[in-house]
Please model this.
Amino acid sequence: MSIHPSHVMLTEDEIRTALRDCYDPEIPCNIVDLGLVQSVAIEPDREAPGAGIPGVPQKHRIDITLTSTNPTEVAESQLSAQIANRLAGIEAVSRTTVTVLRTPPWTPQDITPAGRRTLGLDGNPTLVQIR
Model:
């Protein structure tokens, strides 16, 4: 965990790295490598305690948009809680919003090469059934 001076912006790469600690409830792979994370938006939180006070590190609002491998309320709430808990551990994050999209639906083709290696799918790029 790094401390961000007030003039340094939190980056999408830092958020995506943190999200690699969040796992799908059913498939043993992180949500980044499964291809679930559709977008990461980072905005300075001007309403965070201490905002605008010299020497107080800037806090940020994080908006995550993702798809789900299992579009059920239970699975989506597990994912949202995992993400919010993980990002709460970053000092520069003040709050996180997670939006789960129903469309486009997730497919195994969304899995990154790293995710395919994790799941043992390297040799079969057309494999569609992974459960």
Summary: Residues 73-88 form the longest helix (16 residues). Residues 1-7 have pLDDT under 50 and may be disordered.
